[in-house]
C-alpha cells in the first residue's frame, strides 16, 4: 500500500506543468508552441525571460525532491521513497495534465538525485555544467550527466536498488532526447545562448 500511495502521490506531483504555469503567469507564449515544443526550462528560456526559465527549473527540480521528502516524512520505507521520486519523474515526462506529453525530465531527475544524496546531485550537476560550458549544448550535457549518474550512484551509495532506479530514470531521460541526439549527429542542434526569435521557431 505504501508503494502504491507513494507512486500515486509522486506521479500527481510530477504532473504539475511548471513550464506552462510559469509562462502563463508571465504572459509568455505556451512553451509547447515554439522552439522544441518541450514544456521545460530550456525551452522557456527561448522566450527570452530568464526569470521564468529559472522558476521553471526550480519548480521542476522541486517536484522530484519534494515527492521523496514527503514520502519519508510520513514514514514510507526507503523503497517507497525511491518509488515516489521515480513516479514524480515519470509524471513530469508523461503528465496526464498535458495529454502525457511532458518535458524531458532533466530538472526533475536532478531533484530525485538530490533526494537520494546531495553529493550525487552536486556531482551530476557539475558534469552537466562542465559540458555546457565547454560545448554550449544543453542536450549533450544532459546526456553526459545521465550516462554518469548511475555510475556515481553506485560509487557514492553502493545500493543496487537505488542504482537500478537511477539507471532506469536516466534511460528514460536519454530516450526522451532521441531527437536531440539526431540533431547533434547532424550538427543542427541549437546551442545555449544561440536562440532565434520565437516567431522564427517552427510550431509543435
Structure description:
The chain is an all-alpha fold. The chain has one domain (about 1-200). It is built from ten helices and no strands. The longest helix is centred in the first third of the chain and has 24 residues, at about 50-75.
The percentage helix is 55-70%
Number of strands: 0
Q: Helix tally?
A: 10
Q: State Rg.
A: 16 Å
Mean pLDDT equals 92
Order of helices and strands: HHHHHHHHHH
Q: How many domain units?
A: 1
Structure, briefly:
This protein has 204 residues and is mostly helical. The protein has helices at residues 2-14, 18-25, 41-45, 50-73, 78-93, 106-116, 118-135, 138-157, 160-176, 178-186.
Note the topology.
Blueprint: H1 2-14, H2 18-25, H3 41-45, H4 50-73, H5 78-93, H6 106-116, H7 118-135, H8 138-157, H9 160-176, H10 178-186
Helix pairs in contact: 1-4, 1-5, 2-4, 4-5, 4-6, 5-6, 5-9, 6-7, 6-9, 7-8, 8-9
Task: Kindly list the characteristics that best describe this protein.
204 residues; mainly alpha; 10 helices; disordered C terminus
